[in-house]
Amino acid sequence: MLVLVAPGQGAQTPGFLTPWLELPGAADRVAAWSDAIGLDLAHYGTQADADAIRDTAVAQPLLVAAGILSAAALGDIADIDPGAVAGHSVGEITAAAFAGVLDDTAALALVRKRGLAMAEAAAITETGMAALLGGDPEVTVPHLERLGLTAANVNGAGQIVAAGTLEQIAALEENQPEGVRKVVALKVAGAFHTHHMAPAVDKLAEAAKALSPTDPKVTYVSNKDGRAVHSGTEIIDRLVGQVANPVRWDLCMETFKELGATAIVEVCPGGTLTNLAKRALPGVKTLALKTPDDLDAARELIAEHAHA
Residues 239, 96: contact at Cβ < 8 Å? Predict the structure, then answer.
């Protein structure tokens, strides 16, 4: 069984969209999305530097656009025929588009509003996030709480992402939990999935009122608790609330295993989620779409596992 997944913020790198825009029709499609949401996606995906695409209001729609574009290069969702779809953080909106809960333009419009709202919330207090590699969650999480930090992403495979003020992140770097090998600052501009994002929840809830979601055509696995959700309305509700609540990617991967996943394809800019899966889901084949050069290998994997 194939699972199609979409990465979250921090996966973007300067120029990563460039080769994808060379595919037939891709530039026109991205231009139409750019006009619809008032953001030059092609510029930010090809010419902007790392600081420019670190901006939450830019990074989030850019990632969703890249995910949808790269998946479309593989074919229609019916051709890909995944047994389940999921996304990490903002990648959940990409996954909602894969599942047919939202059309592509509606997904881009929603993520544009999400990015703006979260950027505004992040500007209130200087906050950030850092990945902790290694360690035992039962030791790490209480340690983070003592420092005033939140375990914002529980990613499994020995990785937890802490979020809080920059002072709290600095304290963590000086006082790491027992068993943690390394603390790595992430390329994000706020403490996402924490109480710091509460102002963004209200704005996103208001934006969601204009949506007309449909029920997912494929199994949609939610970051909230790793549960498969079959109602389009509930998926949108979860997308709204998830902005200020932890991402449980560890539970999502447990659900992939329970569903019988045999392969995972991660859309552009892939790599983060497949690396987690390699450690947490041994025996499951993985492929990350980084450039169009990866498409043929992805198609082979899809042909082998989509109907399994």
Answer: yes
